[in-house]
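Lecture 7 notes: from sequence to structure.
We start with the chain below.
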Amino acid sequence: MADGRIPGVSRSERQDNRVEDLHLDRVVSSHPEIGPTPPDGGYGWLIVFSAVVYHITVPALVTLYGLIILKAIRQDGHEEDEKIKLWDVDIALVPVIALVVKLLLESWSRAVVKIFNMPRFMALAGLCLTVAGVLLSSYSTDADSNDQIVNIFAGLFAGMGCALTGQQTEVIITIYFRENLIMAQRLVRIAPSIGNCIVPIIIGYMLTKYPGDVVVMIYGALLMQNCFFLAAYTRPVYIEKVIRTTYRRIIDAVEDDDEIIFSNQGHSEPPTITQATEGPSTQDDPTDVVVFNSRKNAKEILDPVVQQRERAISNERRFSSDFSEMYNDNNRFSSDFGTLDITSYSRIGAYQELESIDRDAQNPQPLYRETTVNAPDENLVFSADMTAGTARRTAMLKKHFITVANMLIDVNFYLYTMLHLCTTFSTLIIGLLFPIFFWEKNTALNIWGVSQMVTVAHGLALCFILLCVMLPKTFNQKARLCSICCVIGAVSFYGITLSRSMSFLIYWCVVAASSTAVSSILQQPLYNSTLNEFSSTATITFANTAAATFIMIWALVRNYELKTCFVTASILQMVTATVFFIASFRRQR
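Predicted structure tokens for the same chain:
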């Protein structure tokens, strides 16, 4: 016990405890002045619950517009042999434009969220924009309405709102969680699949009672109820507590009025505060150092060498008007310019004078210039001054250029972009067009029957999607796992185009929805594990821009039949699967 050892504890156990105590999280938790540590629970789970409720209702807008389009087509008198096309009803512009705008504005919304640091305001502002877009789209729910301008603005508002609230949700979850971050992100990503099970049955029942515009307005009112959940978005309480308590004590300690003098005389401990504040000592050593001066009759002790240098500088004549001593080293400035030989660089001091101030010149040069090292004979060299702002902007541009260059030559960027495009496009097709395509294959069903079948398909898919929560945080052979999911999705999307019976259509929809949702859930861990050599912001921006550009160009090329849309999704899934399978054989870093 005399040597400080604990009886009954071996040396290896003491070393393990020492390593555990040096863990960064424990250090940060025990010393809040270094920085707070997320609690990984508590109030953060309320944030996750609010985010799940939001993602249950808002992403299901795609299914809402799919059923609204189906009702408009039925009211228009669709013939049995007539093929339904993508742009038969103009309200289809709303979900497509909303998706494109959301992809384009996600990076900007993330920057705005981090700059303003007002989570509740940003989340509620995005919700209000989304509700405004939904309510605006209620004016063009009929098949005969040609209000493209209204649909475009409705899509813009809905896309901006989804981007703002979605990025605020992602940012605030990362603030509250560290160890359980992957679990929280997976719960939020599974929420749209839950919405695809609940929303179709609700919308299908309301469409049997009310017209399409009324149903859209009612759903907009339901979306507005998310304000009670998004109001829970706030900064962590532990950050406010640390700022108000710990950092306040640190500042008060620094601003203490007492004087502490540490002596270099070999004392074993520094003097106490009472000894330092009793008054100036008559036996102070000249080598003592004052850490910070007191306002209570403290004495400043200087080094003798410093005192001698200060006295010599004070006695030295820095400026002189005696022209006879202009070459004296003590005279730094002089007014006699005629006797100075400018061609002799060895006689020029810290400042360089001109050849003659009395000469006649059309373009006189500055009187002084910077000292030139190894300057050529009979030439004046002037250096270009660079301000701090110019240097900072130049460094930032160089940093961005290097980031983009490294990103474009990295294979992981193209893998992430392909998977992101595949999952985004497949989610749009399965949510917006499957109810319409299902009714085209089975025209005897009404809207209530179609909504029931869609609910059953997404409900069965949810049983498989929930298993993704139990998956480990990291995966070996991520590329092959994503390749398998994309192959299953390609087969299922193509199977939808070949089937006519309800049972096979439901089966292929279950497989397609499951594979697409699993790929979307695996997308975030794959992104976190592979994109670690360049800026994540640049990667998200370029990937979203590529996906938005593809969807917009594809949608505007022609008015596709529904079968062509599912075939396109199948081809895109197969291409993604092939790319990931080939990439799985490359050497791992």
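Points to note: The first helix runs from residue 11 to 21. The CA atoms of residues 36 and 239 lie 7 Å apart.
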